[in-house]
Structures are given as C-alpha cells and as structure tokens.
Amino acid sequence: MKIVFHATGGRPEPWLADLAASIPGADVRAWQEGDTAPADYAVVWQPPRAMLSGRTDLKAIFNLGAGVDGIMALGDALPAGVPVVRLDDAGMGVQMAEYVSHAVLRYFRRFDEYAMQQQAGQWRFLKPHDKLSFTVGILGLGILGSRIAQSLRDFGFPLHGWSRSPKEVAGVTCHAGEEGLDAFLAASRVLVCILPLTEETRGILNRATLEKLPQGAYLVNVARGAHLVEEDLLALVQSGHIAGATLDVFREEPLPPAHPFWREPRITITPHAAAVTLRGDSVRQIAGKIAQLQRGEAIAGVVDPQKGY
Ligand code: NAP
Ligand code: GLV
After folding, report:
1. 2-90+277-294: what CATH class?
2. Domain spanning 92-269: CATH 3.30.470.20
3. For 114, which of 55, 136, 178, 198 is 20 to 30 Å away at the CA?
4. How confident is the model at residue 193 (pLDDT cuts 50, 70, 90)?
5. How does pLDDT run across 206-223, given as a tens digit for each residue?
6. Residue (of 143, 168, 171, 141) closest to 155 by Cα position
7. Under DSSP, is residue 69 helix (H, G, I), strand (E, B) or coil?
8. Hey, what long-range contacts does 127-135 have (CB within 8 A, 24 or more apart)?
9. CA distance 309 to 303
10. What mean pLDDT is predicted for residues 55-62?
11. Annotated catalytic residue within 86, 160, 175, 224
12. What is the pLDDT of residues 256-275, one digit of tens each?
C-alpha cells in the first residue's frame, strides 16, 4: 500500500515515520513537485493543487485537521469521486473545551476586568455576574461544539446551541436552521463560534447578527477568521454593545502588525492555537480508518461535498 504525504508548514519526517510504523506494509513518501507515481491514500494539510489534481487512483484523502475549508477550496483540483476525510476529534475536543471554558470563566468571573484594574493599581471588588442569565450560545453542535457544551454544562452555565439539523443534546436548548437563529442569538450572553467555514457560514458574525446578542455580550471565535466581519466587531466593541471578544482565528493569519485588534484591550488574541493537530492521535485515527477501508467497511468523518463539511 502506497501513501503520499504533504503538510504545509510542518516537517514531514516524524509523520512519515509514525505512519509507516502504524500501518502494516505501508510505503509512505513525502510528495515532491512532479510526483505523479501511484498512491492508494493521501495524508495532507493545505496541499498544493498539483498534488491531488487528477489523482483518481486514490481511495481516500485524509485531511490533518477538523476543518476542511482549505482543501475543499481546491474545487475542481480535487479528484472526482475520491472521499475527503476530516479528523474526528483526535484529541482536539478536550483542547477546545479547555480554551472555551477558560474564556467563558474569565468573563463570568470578571478576571478580564480585574487584570485591567491591576494595571491601574486598583483594589476594587466587582459584583459577580448572575449565572442564570450568563447563557452561553454555541454556534455548531458537531464533534467539537458538543464537547465544549459537555464541559460548560459541568460548570452549570445555561446553554443554547445552533446547528443545521435539529438536535437533542443533554443540558442544551437546541435551535436549528435560519428560523432558529434569532432566538438563539437573543439568548446568548456569550456567543461561541465553532462552525465549519462554508458559503453558508462565511461572514455569519456580522453587525446584524451581533446586534441581536444581549447588550454587553461576549464573543469567542475558535472556528475560522472568515466567519467574522472584523470591522463590525470592532465597531460594536467600541460602542459597548459587545463587552469583549476572544479570537483565535483571523481573516489574515498571522494577524498583521497594523491590525486594529492588537490595540483594542477588550479583544484577546491567540495565534490559531485553540486546538492543534496531535500527531499520535491523528496517526492512530487515520491508521484505523485505512484498516477499515481495506476491509471494505464504511468510515466516519467523510466530508459531504454538497454541504462542504
Ligand atoms: P462538525 O463535527 O462537522 O460540526 C459542525 C457543526 O456545525 C454541526 O453541528 C453542523 O450542523 C453545524 N453547521 C454547519 N453548517 C451549518 C449551517 N449552515 N447552519 C447551522 N449549523 C451549521 O465540525 P467540528 O469537528 O465540530 O469542527 C468545527 C470547526 O472547528 C472546523 O470546521 C474548523 O473550522 C474549526 N476548528 C478550529 C480549530 C482551531 O484551532 N481554532 C481547531 C479545530 C477545528 P449539523 O450537525 O446539523 O450538520
Ligand atoms: C484547525 O484549525 C483544524 O481545522 O483542525
């Protein structure tokens, strides 16, 4: 069995070694410009167009991330009929739960305001927020959104969630589709975005939707930068409608030094670090799925090209 590998921005050697060690009989190679030699599987992150174009010999393309917006943007350069497979959690769920719980607790317990008071040398007790009205709304109730909900539920936050199809998640008031969005937004004191980036969700965090949040709401975006209309958020933070935002993803990454977000103290910036791809977990998951495919079994995590995730 032949596996071709390419991950933009990373060293291939440890991946090649781990894939070879985990998949019996696998001949694993790093893709080089001009490599059109036969392959059964591709394992990729942000592959160049030339790597996959016309490769109908592949049985599957494994994407080394949960988000497939980058690879789906290759469009016609993706070989027709070859399934694209995303990572299902693979250790990212708990990282997302840590990141979002930290952000929600920081706002709920007013640690952001205490940090500003410390800068000013102020000792002043701040009255705690009322938990029953500190509702967290999670945009996206898939693998990562449900794991975030699980952790926030343990802290006792009232939770709302929004997905494309109707769902039942314990402890979460679920809303679905366009018709469910306004009620979801009106209930969300903290809005967490963990949606895939598709043509339907691009720009979903804009002035019109953010204005539907209660006055003094918070935003946590751990999905993709293109979900957010950045100038709309900035205006709403400056007007006070949005009290603060924690952003892990941006339209342009790295965030350019001149970007106004750097100078807005109510916006917290992290460098696309909310949940990273873990090599051990990812290789184990991909090796397991290749074994299933070799036995002719169906696998989880196959992207629906119509939905784009
Ligand atoms: P997932 O399991 O596919 O879940 C996606 C959820 O979004 C589902 O609940 C889906 O609804 C909902 N959804 C999609 N389109 C929708 C629409 N138009 N309207 C309403 N709901 C919609 O994805 P995941 O594994 O949780 O990952 C989510 C995203 O997180 C990834 O795509 C990636 O962009 C991002 N991510 C970021 C980082 C980071 O470090 N910042 C790391 C990993 C992932 P249905 O359930 O009805 O289909
Ligand atoms: C990271 O952003 C991912 O999509 O896995």
Report:
1. alpha beta
2. no
3. 136
4. very high
5. 999 999 999 999 999 999
6. 171
7. helix
8. 131/156, 131/157, 131/158, 132/158, 133/158, 133/189, 134/108, 134/158, 134/189, 134/190, 135/159, 135/160, 135/187, 135/188, 135/189, 135/190
9. 5
10. 97
11. 224
12. 999 999 999 999 999 999 99
Distance of CA 128 to the CA centre of its chain: 30
Cis (ω within 30 of 0) for the bond into 214? no
Give me the helices (H) in the chain, please. Answer: 13-22, 49-52, 69-72, 92-108, 111-119, 143-154, 177-187, 207-210, 230-239, 279-294
| pLDDT band of 116, cuts 50, 70, 90 | very high
Residue 52's pLDDT band (boundaries 50, 70, 90)? very high
With a Cβ cut-off of 6 Å, ligand 1 is lined by 66-67, 92, 140-145, 162-165, 194-198, 200-201, 222-224, 248-249, 272, 274-275, 309
Is 160 within 8 Å of 187 (Cβ atoms)? yes
Question: At a CB cut-off of 8 Å and minimum separation 6, what does 129 contact?
Answer: 107, 108, 110
Helix axes 143-154, 92-108, angle to 10 degrees: 40
Confidence at residue 69, expressed as pLDDT on a 0 to 100 scale: 98
Residue 302 is predicted with a pLDDT of 98
Closest CA to 3 of 46, 56, 58: 58
Nearest CA-CA partner of 159 in 143, 177, 141, 144: 141
Q: Determine the pLDDT at residue 20.
A: 98
Tell me the average pLDDT of the chain.
98
Query: What pLDDT sits at residue 92?
Result: 98
Q: What type of residue is 138?
A: I
Structural domain spans, the chain: 2-90+277-294, 92-269
From the alpha carbon of 275, which atom of ligand 2 is closest?
A: 1
- Ligand 1 centroid to Cα of residue 196, in Å, is 4
> Which atom number of ligand 1 is nearest to the Cα of residue 68?
32
CB 147 within 8 A of CB 97: yes
